[in-house]
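FW: tagging you since you asked about this chain on Friday. Here's the raw sequence from the shared folder, copied in full. Didn't touch anything.
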Amino acid sequence: MTDRSAVDTIRGYFYQFDLSILSVLQLPSLEDSIEIECVEDIDVRTANDVTATQCKYYAKTEYNHSVIKDAVKHMLSHFKETLTGTKSKVSYSIRGHYAGGQEKLDAGVDIDFLKKHFLTYTKEKVTYYHHVELGLSDTELEAFLKLLTIDIRAKAFDQQFGEVITALKAALGGTKFSAEYFFYNNALAIIRDLSIKAATTDRVITKKQFLARVNTSSILFNEWFVEKKGKKAHLAMLRSEYFTELNISAHERFFMLQVDPNSYERGELKELIFEISKKWSKLSVREPSPFCPYIYVHGLSDCELIDLKRELSTEGFKVIDGHDFQGAEFSHQSIVQKATHGNGIKIKVLNTLPNVEHTVNAITKTRRVYQFHLGNSYFQYDNPAVRHIKIQVERLTDVKSII
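HL: got it, structure written out here
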């Protein structure tokens, strides 16, 4: 597979995922459900009926009847099983987007057209008739056609995606950014996870369950979402949304980082600390309201944290951590002291999660908590007065590209 065809294939997957998301969002009842790749790509189940939908995305290919022939044959085979009572009755839908050729179906599909273009095929120079193999009469084929809908003028890739974002905003509220980076990101992961479940019953989700799982407050690192956006663009968008203030206000900012003990390098962490201090401090002698950020590092051993602070101090990078002398208990009054050009404080290190919560609670100024996590979120803090942003990253170095 060439690089170009690989990209087209991936877009085809996303097109199908987006249609699945849109299908569940458009369900009329919270108890209605979709089933992923059961009878077809997507089975939509309401209180009254089930529609099995197959999705085709060929943005660079002209429509030909052969493209959907196998889908029609498969649906007809399923229809035959409903007549014998071995399968439940469903409606059938084929949706596709093509570069052209849609006029080939403008006259509609009758029984003769169905037989000629969709049910007749040649194998090893022998002609076969699928409806004959199934033993179906013209009357039964007519009944099948009444259950079949073919739409070869389905929405283009970006147009369908726009409808998904609009539907997510309508269902869950918020901004376009939250609809895409919170809700769509999560929705994509949910549909992807359902599609690879082995058991049919595990590939079913109701609208109510879907909305509950989508509506989270953390930006998760979903590899499919990042694949679609491109990692560089993904990190740049996060920076644009949260870290591009033209005039940095004197807020109290808490940067919560997480390290992986298996790949931790002190030099990488130090470089990130320097970057946070540089970008999110104002300590000049002329600054009327000087400030510097707080930092907490999750996953760092006590010994390594001590060595890190010692090394920073030795290099002339002044840190405070709320402990005024050996053996002293943590004091929020100590940690919240103003950093100035005169006292040289560059960063305020919080050693534990209780220290973080105690300090955030003790401050009355505007507070912002930026929690970067590698796996699950490790700090739960719910206070309407405090903006708490949770962003999952693939590795620690990604944080530098975001801030």
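FW: The radius of gyration is 29 Å.
HL: agreed, and The CA atoms of residues 235 and 402 lie 5 Å apart.
FW: great, closing this out.
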